[in-house]
Amino acid sequence: MTILVGYIPTPQGEAALAAATAEARAHGDRVLVVNMSRDDKLVDAHRAEGRDLTRLDADLAESGVEHEVRRVEHGTDPADAILSIIDAEAPRMLVIGIRHRSPVGKLLLGSTAQRLLLDASCPVLAVKAG
Amino acid sequence: MDNLNHLIDGFGHVMTPLNLLFAFIGVIVGTAVGVLPGIGPAMTVALLLPITFSLDTTQALIMFAGIFYGGMYGGSTTSILLNTPGESSSVVTALEGNKMAKVGRAAQALATAAIGSFVAGTIATVLLVLVMPQVVAFAIDLGSPEYFAIIMLAFVGASMVLGSSRLRGFAALLVGLSIGIIGIDKVTGQQRMTFGIPQLADGIDIVVVAVGLFAVGEALWVAAHLRRKAAGVIPVGQPWMGRDDWKRSWKPWLRGTALGFPFGAIPAGGAEVPTFLSYVAERKLTKHPEQFGHGAIEGVAGPEAANNASAAGTLVPLLAIGLPTNATAAIILTFLQGRGLEPGPLLIEKQPVLVWTLVASLFVGNTLLLALNLPLAPLWAKLLQIPRPYLYAGILFFATMGAWAVNGQAFDLYLLLGIGLVGFAIRRFGLPVLPFIIGVILAPIAELHLRRSLQLSHGDVSGLFGGPVAWACYGIIALAILWPLIAKAVRAVRGGKGGPGSGLMAEIREEATV
Q1: Second label for B306, Cα 20 to 30 Å away, from B189, B270, B418, B481?
Q2: Interchain contact A70–B (C-beta under 8 A)
Q3: CATH number at residue A56
């Protein structure tokens, strides 16, 4: 089975990746890492640079897990992007990193994590940064 | 000495809390719109025009000047970090600036841009103080024929220097002129191009034209085109320079200032030409030619100084003759006209407090900009993370409000949309915006002077050629228009080599887009 990870270059993203790798090794799963950058912004802080993805790829290869690193560069909503991948790949589990958000912040900008927790058709493992 | 006293008085007027506040708002807004590509000082000033109806003239002008200067600072940030110029005047900065950022010297590039802008802006504003009264003294004797000639020169200059082809430049100019003459003929009372629509009899309000062209046109263009992959965050760090960077920067700053100021003052398209020239000059004069193309600091320092110096230069013809040489100046001119002020040689005599307070505010604004830009550059870069739909929804909202505020009639909203579509078409077909807006704004003034000269000479065309100023202007126009033929002839004689002067710009522009 596949474990899907929503990866962003932050401590939360790294924690999610670590948790997914551990889970995959324990059960012999394949890891699918997805990084999404929005195409309606000039600069997206959640975009993983090419060297990030290369490093990630190397790390996963070293840990001996079957894996794929995928980058989504179109669309405006990371939650939509991940939900459509869940539909296509039917993973066993989705792993995401979460962090504290203020109520006002969520009101203004919405919460990707909340949408994924509520709308994903597979179990979701939510991880906090170390 | 008299000027100096006036200027000191001007400082006295600027140093009130309210005026300082407007200078502060101006430079903050200016930097922000400078950082954001596609949104420039011209659009911002156009959007703010209706809001300033209730403001004091001096305060509004101080704010506009701050936006104008601020835009020149902000544009470099985007050029350096993203390789996408925030403003047209920062196109060249991207050449070396982005290479510097790629090798981890973004902080130095931002620092030399900000400090260079400050140095150039200050020197050029001093030059403005020295030169403007001379130009006023010269312009005060000019009659209508000379004015008409100068405006024609501005038309030709704006249409020919920039843009991908002269034909496109003149096409944009003619569309602008056509919009500019809509309404009742002031001399005969006939209606022109109103198509029987009563709302058009007063002409189209420039606010509607400017907002439609810059805001709605740009929003449509972005909606249609600019969907592109986002870039990752570039670590900036605190902008500062080492001793070696200072040593390599100060000469380009001064040379950039020397190039920028006069080019800003002549009607040749504002800041773009001097930044190109400054880049070429630095590439020739540098002691590190091997670094050009790989992040040479001179290539950032020179053009950035040039664009700020040209901003100050732009104000010389605007305040002394009433002649705008770039889009932002054109809209500031509209603002002055809307206030019942006649920008021209009489302005400084009738409104000395206004003019000198404005000039003093430039010094203050420049200093504020340095203080804002040097330590806060990483913060400004964060603006680039705003999703475009948020930005353009806000812009369209302000545009619609502004167009409505002019007369409170729905007809203006249809016009706004119509002109927005024209603005979109202009961008789509690669027509330059500057001749268009200058045509709209100067058409009534040009016509006034044309009719007046012809009345003076009883309809004799020779009345248009009164005086050496007019001769010189028409001479330059003729030379400029015939230049391709002359260049062709020269090339034929020389046998192939040596293209026209614009070939160089095209070459650099090609480099810039690669």
Answers
A1: B481
A2: no
A3: 3.40.50.620
